[in-house]
Amino acid sequence: MIRLAVRCRPDLAELVLAHLVELAPGGVEEETGPGWIEYAIYGAPGELPALPDLQAAAGDGLVEVTSKEVPDDWADRWQDFHEPVLVGGRILVRPSWADPQPGTIDVVVDPGQAFGTGAHPTTRMCLELLLGLDTAGLAHGPIADWGTGSGVLAIAAAKLGFAPVVACDHERPALEAARASAEANGVDMELVRVDLRREPAPVAPTVVANLTAPLLPEVASRIEGRPERVVCSGLLVSEVDEVADAFAAVDLREQERRASGDWACLLLAR
Length: 270
Hints:
Blueprint: E1 2-8, H1 13-23, E2 29-33, E3 36-43, H2 52-58, E4 62-69, H3 74-77, E5 85-87, E6 91-94, E7 105-108, H4 121-135, E8 143-146, H5 152-160, E9 165-169, H6 172-185, E10 190-193, E11 206-210, H7 215-221, E12 229-236, H8 240-248, E13 253-260, E14 263-269
Parallel strand pairs: 6-7, 8-9, 8-11, 9-10, 11-12
Antiparallel strand pairs: 1-3, 1-4, 2-3, 5-6, 12-14, 13-14
Helix pairs in contact: 1-2, 4-5, 7-8
């Protein structure tokens, strides 16, 4: 098994990630460090894609591209690196092989063919804001999850009390992973395939959108209907104002802003 890693400056993270997702829709591993973000994909020797387009697009912002062989038992050992994540003292996002914790909202999601295990700062901050809506008595009624990935946000929302739940994604592996995760958690949700770059997203009074900064303004410009509030993340701290302005143009204004490292999250409302 070969690990192909691409390390870049944080301001180019979304560009690099977008290219890698197209090359390897099965999933991308992420690591962060001081002044860099690294994305990695895995494959058998000779099966990994070449990266000339990515290297040309990133230019001098690409810190390095490395590849190395990993042990044959990597497929089993990688489980050791995925630990349960407790968010806000209330939501536990855990892989199926980890034990539940009494008194927590249990969300079981196995890492695999889609993004979202609760470990990434953008996912954690979205969950924190959903908990805030619950504390404010707003965790009820329909909710839409734009770019659901593994379904972790939609599942957590359903367990908080939102219903019905509709979740969308463009990648078929993501929809399959979200469906499997929903079944594992005993959660009902409608899953729809939507290309958010070209089509309007499903709308509900509450929306959660863990996307990317370049995509969020596009989605905002195509909103149909009138969501009351939107939790959005997937953006860098340097990109928050641009995204907030795009939603303000459709009368969704910033209510709360959070940051974790280089990443940020917004709560917008009418």
